[in-house]
Amino acid sequence: MGPIRSAQTIEPKAIPPEKRLQSDREDRQSTQSLDKDEATAIVSDHALELEKSVENRVRRKIDMFLIPTMWIGYGLVYYDKAILGSAVLFGMTQDLNLSVVDRSRTPPTTSTDRLSWATSMFYFGMLAGLYPLTFLLQRFSMGRVLGGIVLLWGLVAMLTAAVTSWQGLFVQRFFLGFVESIMPTAFMCIIASYYTQKEQALRQSWWFSATGGWTIIGGALNYGFAQITGGSLKRWQYIYLLAGALTVLYGCICFTIPNSAVSAWFLTPEERVVAVERLRKGQTGVRCQKVKSSQLREALLDWKIWITAFMMAGAYTVNGAVSGFGPLIVSTFG
Length: 334
Prior knowledge:
69% helix, two-stranded antiparallel sheet, mainly alpha, 4 strands, 334 residues
């Protein structure tokens, strides 16, 4: 570990032992307060000058743990959401009566409104779950909240194999969206807690790129399920059982995600100080578990927030249509 030099020199003062003990107790209580940023537990009030090589080494170590973990997680988010389109090709439409044939017309017409609503119910669930789950993520331990919710998400995905009607599929899709809604927010919080503002955009794009990667991986897995000709279950049921099982395994990994760089188990104590000091320049802090009305008001009045909201609305509108109906559209090409 390279040397860390103080940017300021403070002249020591003689402090009576009684006052020193009292000050130490007050500092510990202040650190435990939800009003304080976690960084106050390991760094001083004065900035430290870091060697570039040391800073780069710590950043690489953070990348090696966080980026693959988030890439796999967001890939599972996309895969669990998008396999509805593949399940439709494997018999779900007929088994759950997702299409209705109107034979009163000539020629008969087929309505897929139920499939459309099944796709939409996922996003209704996301809308309902985003705010309460984000509050839990902010208020309590990152790893415990994320791990528990991901385990629940895996259970919901596996239970899709037990659905016997289109009404049941609607309920399943709603709760799947509800529990998955926390993932993008959690990953953005993780990125903000470990990386400087200059580094965040690239790291955000890395875990978001899982949508493309898992489109390829998911397609290969679904092709394998298409070859199943026996067994007591339908092919679409096997898909959801696998997706849910993978998600449960990932949920166990999520319990190991530290709350912030202050408690990062994959860093040494000296490296944790460096990881926190890197963020001091941007004045963003590490993690504060109190919702502050002044910050909420500032966010609502920031035009960049609303631009981002419109961008994401456009992206998810297209994403929902492609993930829900893409395989069905491709199947009509011949």
